[in-house]
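Input:
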Amino acid sequence: MHKYLQLLLRGLAVALVIVWSAGPVMFIVISSFKPQLQMFAYPPSLAFVPTFEHYVALWNEWDAFFPTLKNSLIVSVGATVLAVFVSFLAGYVYSRYAGRLLAISAIYMIAIRLLPPIVVTLPLFPAVDALGLSDTHALLILLYAAFWVSLCTMIIKTFIDEIPRELDEAAHVDGASQAQTIRKVILPLALQGMAASAIFVFVFAWNEYLFALIFTTQYAKTAPLVISEVMDAIYGTNWGVLFAGVTVQLAPVVALVMFAQRLLVAGLTAGSVKG
Amino acid sequence: MKKLSPSAFGLLAPVHVLLLGVITLPSLYVFWMSLNESSYGVAPVFVGLSNYKTVLLDSYFWRAAFNTFVVVNAVVYAEIVLGLALALLFASGLPCRKLMFAIVLMPYAVSEVVGVLAWKIIMNPNYGAIGRMLADWGMGLNWSASPTQGLVLVSVISVWHHLPFTFLLLYAGILAIPQSVYEAARIDGANAIQMFFRITLPLLIPALLITVIFRLVFAFRMFSEVWLLTKGGPARLTEVLAVYLYQGAFRNGEFGTAAATGWLMVLSSLAIASFYLYQMHRRIAVGNA
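Output:
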């Protein structure tokens, strides 16, 4: 009897976890395939004939959506490549060199990351305007990359630490320059750490709202921003189109995170727990 | 281990230029901005500490500070309890562990915009699955009129979003506890509750501390959930500090007082984080010795 009760409680807990974690997201995804009339039926039901009408409407009617999705893609890929590349170079130094200056700068990199991002928008706002960078992809790429290089450097450093130093020395003995050693020896073996870092930056940049709200108005506007604008001004039958748009926006990244869970965990333990 | 050489400085340069240009110098420059009065940061006039006086005498600032304090604490400690429960559930063995893990990570992968949208609809008293049910029980939600309801919903959404992160940190902590300790306890006849309080919890203290501080620091900057759900209303009663700053700066153009708020936020986050940074420093110093 006791055993059955325990099994029942565990089953209940698992069900709760699934509903809590996946419920809100699945609600939007499922609703995007529901006919308009059934979308907000109460109690909610899974008995419906799936329809693609909202996706057709999304493609035909919501002109503003796909350009912002493209902006999101450009900005996310740009920020990821920039952050991971420069962090790889720095991660190599933090792994292979030692000294007081390096130890202090490692602390500084972590401390800087703890500052609230909204604070830097104040000085950057007039500066960006003067530099002609407002509402550009380049600006968002720089901002997103800057807020992630600390963590990426630490993650990649931890992964490079695992590469035996004997490999560096062997390359050196064979006459390889430092640049060649980095490119031919370290880089291929650090790819896993770089991939783990890349996921963090990409997910952040793809979903970011605050900087996009403050620094973009038209040309570089990202998908989360346009979704938030429509969400505040919506009426009647447009819900289906909004849900379809949101599903298109979230599906690739949700899939990425779900499939790359092992990398994510490795990156998180390398970056934040070990420091 | 090699001593720093010119080529090493070259490799470090891109990261540090990016950090200096985008975060460090702007964060320091905010202090100078806070001593000036300006409209959108243009044509500053030096005013000394008067911006701080304005901010510290503004009752909306104190309301925002109070809201931030309450929401941040509620969110972080709720996350710790739920995250710990979830980590224990996973550690005790689950069917389809990989799939369950992926499901738990889901909220981490979606934008705050999407999270707020989903919860807004689910909680809507007229057509939301949970909102309607609550309304039928006589608890119809109306967060555009009730600041308390607004802040509670903000907290729920925030917990939902960040639970995966909290869970991952605590789960990693639990997995790091050697199994042999539990085996020894089992042989000595300890039951599950004793093992939790005598083994798991004490050995998890370092991981718990790091998680709490990390989450405190990151919850402190909360902006999107509040801005997207309530815009700080009704009557500015649900503002948190970041929203208060945003309103002042980008709605009213008052960059001087916003900078004063910003500098106060910088100092507060460093104060919250100082313990963590001290620990990191000690560990790195030990590692280098």
